[in-house]
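User: Hello, can you help with two protein structures?

Assistant: Certainly.
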Amino acid sequence: MLEHLARKWARKEKMEQSAEFDSNGMIPNHIAVIMDGNGRWAKARNLPRIAGHRSGMKTVKEIVKASDEIGVKYLTMYAFSTENWKRPREEVDFLMKLPQEFLTTELDELVERNVRIRMVGSKEELPAHTLKALETAEERTSGNTGLQLNFALNYGARKEIAIAVKDIVTRLQAGEIALEQIDEEMISRHLYTSDFPDPDLLIRTSGEIRLSNFMLWQLAYTEMWFTDVLWPDFTREHLYQAIAEYQGRARRYGAV
């Protein structure tokens, strides 16, 4: 059912190239993005995969600006999954350098824009230079009150949920909580994303129609928008198209 709807949405997106969102209408409070297609973009141009990742970084900059300008409060970018460690070492090393490069070149502007940086994921396996760049950015922007830019790095939803369950069981065994207190809200409070709301809109590029172990708990009632556009080719106009369709949907949360 999900795949059928997703394909319908993707086809509809192609037919709405001129769609414009209502700037006075409902803007998604939280947009999550699965940035897919960097490798295929590079392959189509006979370039190494890392060239696609570098071009994709430029798109990140553009979408952050666009999201900030239209009033999005939270933007979560799926940058590196727990499964991505299986990729060739050269590619992984490059992907670990990209956050450092992005934050080094863009941090001053992000601070000026009042953007707050957050990392979402496990810090344990990250190289020291990557972790340092992220922690520096988090610390420097901790007091900012504008757009919150979340980088999902070394992130896997199943691992996130497993860690939350372990934490809750540990508290239960220690007598800190009672079994009857364990509910959906408690689980949410033990996730990486405990201090900000679930996504209103998920965007995935490249034509793939799956979640790829991304925010499986948080996406329960999220509107999804899929496009064949590869991430390096994704523009603010595509973002606006996604928001325009989002504004045309009725979110019922299981009700009629």
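That covers the first. Now for the second protein you mentioned:
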Amino acid sequence: MSQQGPIIVVSAGEPPPFASALQDAELLPVVPCRWADASRSLAQLAPAAVVVAASATAEIGLEALARQVAATRLYLPLIVVDPTTSLPDNAIPCTQSGGKFDRLIARLRSALRVRTLHSTVMRRLDGSTTALATFDDADPARDPTVLLIGRGAAYPSLSVSLGERMGVVGALRIEAAAKHLTTRDIDGIVLGEGFTPRVEDAFLTVLAEDAR
């Protein structure tokens, strides 16, 4: 899988085993570095993601590294493998088991897709200072808006439950949902009951083909 920049793997000593697993999964290039070089590597290499091997040393340097990651204009995934303490808000925990790294690889691929989407959005916003200011003020993690699609018996209670936690845009028909997706800022989709499998498959196919 190609990405915009290398993947930096930060550890206290020798490269951790998951560094080789990332290479085997063709998440390239992988650049191992120690904590003393982490900040400089981040500034010079413009990585696509940062993966940290948790350790006592990591606990000391992680806060500073997380602040540096958060300051980048484009979303930069920061994944901490096997954390033992609480993490900064922008760090993604990933716990492995049995020496297998399938979960890490899947989580990293997902984070890189989010980065690609963010890159696409930022390119579209380039040249519009007003649009950039509006985008920067929005925090999807803090103020998410979901599109709730459905017309089954559970729709009212589901709408209330979601509305207590986040913004909700409702749609009773697939056509209305498609219109909302083209005109509103939507952070997630909840597909409820009331549609045939054929309609659901068609809708999911359209979503998969959407470059956003």
